[in-house]
Write a structure and sequence with these properties.
152 residues; mainly beta; Purple Acid Phosphatase, chain A, domain 2
């Protein structure tokens, strides 16, 4: 199972991001979507699970939750936009992966058996940070993360 991971599009969905996410079995958007059309375009690649970020305040975003739990293979993924708002202990809750955004900084690290995965920002470039997306490759209880810097 391949999950495409994207965040912080802020209303801009680049062709390079679509190309990098092609072939995903499901796409997770970790918030700051910026426009409902982004989700429509992503859904042309694969089913989408999205959460609301702090810029997603318009009426279309009200249907999105602040957090989501996604079951994939034999593991559980917890999605939230801002890792600083994490209100549970992932390993104690049986969560294997925490997907988040907000910082625009791609990051992948494992702590206490939990993979914390931020795909970075796929939207407008912020400062000197890269424009990026990510993928999670899941095989049963095993997960491998990949950060993809986009050539923009």
């Amino acid at each position: 199972m391949v999950l495409g991971i994207i965040s912080d599009t802020h209303g801009l969905l680049r062709r390079e991001a679509l190309a990098a996410l092609a072939g995903s079995d499901r796409i997770l958007h970790a918030g700051d979507i910026g426009a409902s059309e982004i989700l429509d375009e992503l859904a042309q690649i694969a089913p989408v699970t999205a959460i609301r970020g702090n810029v997603d305040v318009e009426a279309w975003a009200h249907k999105l939750a602040d957090t989501e739990i996604v079951e994939s293979g034999d593991l559980t993924i917890y999605m939230l936009h801002d890792l600083g708002r994490l209100d549970l202990t992932p390993w104690a809750a049986g969560i294997r992966v925490v997907v988040y955004g907000h910082s625009h900084q791609p990051k992948m690290e494992e702590k206490n058996g939990v993979l914390y995965f931020n795909p970075g920002s796929a939207g407008p470039r912020r400062f000197t940070l890269p424009v990026s997306v990510g993928k999670l490759v899941i095989d049963g209880k095993d997960v491998r993360g990949e950060l993809i810097v986009l050539p923009v």
